[in-house]
Every structure is written in structure tokens, then in C-alpha cells.
Amino acid sequence: MSGEFDFYTVIPAQAPDEAAEIRQFLAACHLEMDGNIDVFVVARAGRRLIACAGLSTNIIKCVAICEDFRGESLSLQLVSEIVQQAAERDHFHLFLYAKPCNVPFFRGCGFYPLVEVPDYIVLMENSPVAIDRYCDRLRMRREPSDKTGCIVINANPFTLGHRYLAQQAAAACDWLHVFVVSEDASFFPYSDRFKLVSQGLAGIANLTVHHGSEYMISRATFPGYFLKEKGIIDSCHTAIDLLLFREYLAPALGITHRFVGTEPFCPVTKKYNEDMKHWLQRAPSPAPAITVVEVQRTAQDGTPISASEVRRLLASGNFDAIKPLVPATTLQLLISDYAPDTTRRPGIYG
Amino acid sequence: MKIIKEAIAGTLESSDLLVKVAPSHDDTLEIILSSEVIKQFGQQIRRVVDETLQRLGVTAGSIIIEDKGALDCAIRARVQTAVLRGAACTDLNWEHLS
């Protein structure tokens, strides 16, 4: 490393003073400090803070360079350093959010644009082929079908509401693709959620259950989804997630319709459903429009079935009340592995 | 040599290159080269990369290279390092690296 600038790392949680200085620096560059940064790489010229880049799991954020030093070797060193930090944390497939005007710069750093919310934000990844290879693998699972539906569910846990939605969608289509959100950020770990979806949808002949990916409702494409409890809704992120779906995933599988349950409770999901109609159907895009179909939620004694209600009931061990809301396979797993008094702690892998 | 995990070597700085290797999904070898001097030296860089991989016996994997105008010796060294890291190699035949 050249001696011109000093590079080092700052873990914001352990260095509040320096984190405050970074926050000020970012504000001067018209950027907000992100609360989920694991580590910052900062550069100083003498004592002056002149550049920073943050890493949140496998997403690079909060990249700022003091105006006097832009267009110099500093910027490439900065990105190299943060890529190195990611590698040390075992993250190699990286995402990055950038303003559209900064895309050429990050292109020079090995990042390639995926989708853009015009004039607002671009999602980039550090591979020119990763999304294409992913779509190649999806394409192999295409089914001969004219009207092809898709559902994306978190299923935390799988309920009769999910099954009803899938039944309605499968009946309305030639083929239905069901994706399970794979990000492990929910109460029930992914392995259990995927298993319950597969078991719970058994018997519906014209559908495929797919593993989710980083390209749909993941921390990278839709960070707000996993901050639901905090009520943080960021519309640009729903746009990124939905445009990825429309421009890459849907064409690979030939998806023409996306099905979604009406959302009476959760504001994030409700907003997501509304945004879906805009970004999948109306917004200008090189990809064909996808028809959004809202299916009225199935109700039990007048109350719509929701996974969050099941989790509330589970916390108090009220299995009698859970029983009419979930299929037998889900109930069985809840009793055996998630009863409130068992020693196993859910949310941890396995 | 088999690439069993993702790994990187190098930097994005001028006269260097960043090499990223990953296991292949379908047992093919895919090399993707992006270089600031691709028009002048693209073929030469490709040859150095191919030769280096061949000497290491790498027949499958995804190799992504961001070149910033590195010399052949730097290209060879970065590709070797990334592959050795990705292969989690502990028992090294140094002669193959020369």
C-alpha cells in the first residue's frame, strides 16, 4: 500500500467516537450512516478523514470520498480494501448500492449494474455473469405452460393461508412456481421453512417449489423486509427487488402472473403488495409486464390466517388455537421442536 | 487442482489485478477477463491466465479477473494465489509455480 494515505478499519459498535466522525463525514457527502455496518474501511491523509466504505454482511454501503481526492488512486485502494475485508469475513459475492451517476466509477472496480430505479439508485454486483448463471439454472426448471404463475413466500411458518393461496394460484395457471425466501433472518430457520412448504404443498400437481436466492427478498435486494418489526419501509428497495424479479427471474421461468395474498396486518408486506402492481405492471422496463393477482386471504372464524398470529400463539404454547390455522405437518414440527419449554432455540441454523 | 471454495487475490490498484475464483456449478472452466488494456493486451493476458491454470491443473471453476494493466508476472502470481486459496491447498508443488 502506498504511503500517501493511511487505511485502517473501524468497527462502529466498538468505536463510537470514530463512528460519529464517519457519520459527520458521510453527511457532508450527502449520505446517511447505515445502522447495520459491520466494519468501515477509512482513509486519512494526516489526521484528516478523506474516505470511507462500509460493509454490511455482503453489501457495500456508505462509500464516500472527499471531493479533493476523487479520481485518484485513493478510490481504487478504498474499494480493494473493503473487498478484502469482505473476503476475510467469507463474503465473496458482493452487492453494492450506488447513485446512477457513480455507476461508471464502480464499473471500474469490478461491479456490474443489475437494476436501476431511474435517477435514484442502482444495485450492482461484483460479477458480470452471476445473475445470468443463476437464470440459466432457473431456465432448466421451466415447464411448458402459457399462463405461468409465481408466489414468493417466507412461510414463517407455513400456514393453511399459504396453502390456500397456492391452491388458488395453481388452479388459475398452467404451472405455478413457488419460491421460499432463503435469507435466514426469520424466527424459523430456512431449512425448516423450506421443508414445511414442500410438505404443505404436496398433492398440488402443477407446481414447483424453488429455493430462494440472494436475488429475491434477500438482505441485498430488500433490506427493509427483515426490519419489519421496526416498521421501516423503504420504497426504493421494494423497487429494486421487484425489478430484479421482472427483468431476470420471471423471463427465465416464463412467469406471466404473480400471486399475492391481501395483507390486512403487516405494513411492510402491504406496501410491498402495492409497489408490486407499480413495478411489475406499470413501470417502464425492458421486460414484459407481469400481472399481479391479489387473492383474498383465507380466514378462520372471521380472522385472516397469518403466520405472525401463529408465532404469537406459539409463544404462549397455545397449540389448540394454532391447530386450525396450520397443516398437520406444520403443527407436528411446532410441537416437537418449538414448544416454548423445549431447550432448542429456534432461529439458529439447523 | 480443484477449486472447492471462493477466494480472491490481488487489488484493483493500477498495475495490479483482482482475481476471484469460485467452484463451478457444472464442472466447466469459465474465465471472464475485464481489463483496461483489453484491446492491446487481451490475448496476451488470456494466454498467461490459461497457461497458469493449466500448470496448476485447474480444469473447472469460475475465474473472474479485473485487470488494471498488470505485468505478466503479476498476473501469474495473482492467479496462482487465488487458485491455491480456493483449492485450500496445503501440499504445494513449488516447481509448478515457477
Largest sheet properties of chain B: 4 strands, mixed
**Shape call of chain B:** globular
Order the strands across the largest sheet of chain B as they lie in space.
1-2-4-3
> Biggest interface in this structure?
A-B, 19 and 19 residues
- The CATH class assignment of chain B is Alpha Beta
- In terms of per-residue confidence, which ranges of chain B show pLDDT below 50 for 5 or more consecutive residues? none
CATH superfamily of the largest domain in chain A: HUPs
Measure the end-to-end span of chain B.
16 Å
C-alpha Rg of chain B, in Å?
A: 12 Å
Mean pLDDT of chain B: 93
**Estimated structural class of chain A:** alpha/beta
In round numbers, the mean pLDDT of chain A is 89
Structure overview:
- The complex is a heterodimer of chains A (350) and B (98).
- Chain A has 350 residues and is α/β, with parallel strands linked by helices.
- Chain A has 2 domains: 6-96, Aminopeptidase (3-Layer(aba) Sandwich), CATH 3.40.630; 131-337, HUPs (Rossmann fold).
- Helix content of chain A is 36%, strand content 21%.
- Chain A has 11 helices and 14 strands.
- In chain A, the strands form 3 sheets. Chain A has a 7-stranded mixed sheet with strand order 1-2-3-4-5-7-6, with helices on both faces. Chain A has a 5-stranded parallel sheet with strand order 10-9-8-11-12, with helices on both faces.
- In chain A, a hairpin with a 2-residue loop joins strand 13 and strand 14 (303-304).
- The two termini of chain A are 42 Å apart.
- Mean pLDDT of chain A is 89; it is low at 229-233.
- With 98 residues, chain B is of the alpha+beta class.
- Chain B has a single domain (7-87), classed as Ribosomal Protein S5, domain 2.
- Chain B is built from 2 helices and 4 strands.
- Chain B has helices at residues 38-56, 72-86, and strands spanning 7-10, 17-22, 29-35, 61-67.
- Chain B has a 4-stranded mixed sheet with strand order 1-2-4-3.
- In chain B, strand 3, helix 1 (38-56) and strand 4 form a beta-alpha-beta unit.
- In chain B, helix 1 (38-56) crosses helix 2.
- Chain B is globular.
- The model of chain B has no long low-confidence stretch (mean pLDDT 93).
